[in-house]
């Protein structure tokens, strides 16, 4: 290993430690801050090295962030398995909001994946399918950034109860900002109604949580909103937020 390599490695270590220090202090003083204030802090701290991700279930997060940081990069993972309504929502978002929408695709098309790993991988090994079509493409797309904004909330599932408004994403070695972590479903519904936010039309057809078409079903009244995801597969998360 050359001296240059050692110096580069040390610089990366210092940068990581600096970011972790930022996370620790921000998580405390922003815990009770309004979502827009959390976003404003992230935009001021990370500038163009900040992006947000969206599954296009709705444009709530996009609406919030674009009001604070117009032209922000929005990453959408086009898995090849999305409902037509989800793709339509993505296209509408690009026309309506002041954002730079970046369409992310897996390294293999669905046809190539079927050829290499066999058809219907989502039914045989959903964790691997999610990794190949969601997690790996997102990891690759996030590499240029220092921080990313997600729309996950504590009330969505037991795996998300401990979500902080600012976290250290150890898997990706970057900062993760969750400005609506404390919001309830009522908060979400009120913001969408008050601000005329675009939503995926599947919500009107009893799809409260929308993922890939083969792994998402309608939910009956009174059921857990995420019960329509990966039904019967013993799976609750795609892996992006784990």
TrEMBL record:
EC number: 1.8.4.10
Active site: 238 (nucleophile)
Subcellular location: Cytoplasm
Annotated Pfam families: PAPS_reduct
Pathway named in the protein's UniProt entry: Sulfur metabolism; hydrogen sulfide biosynthesis; sulfite from sulfate
Domain named Phosphoadenosine phosphosulphate reductase: residues: 56-217
GO molecular function: 4 iron, 4 sulfur cluster binding; adenylyl-sulfate reductase (thioredoxin) activity; metal ion binding; phosphoadenylyl-sulfate reductase (thioredoxin) activity
PANTHER family linked: PHOSPHOADENOSINE PHOSPHOSULFATE REDUCTASE
UniProt record similarity statement: Belongs to the PAPS reductase family. CysH subfamily.
Protein name, entry field: Adenosine 5'-phosphosulfate reductase
Organism: Planotetraspora thailandica
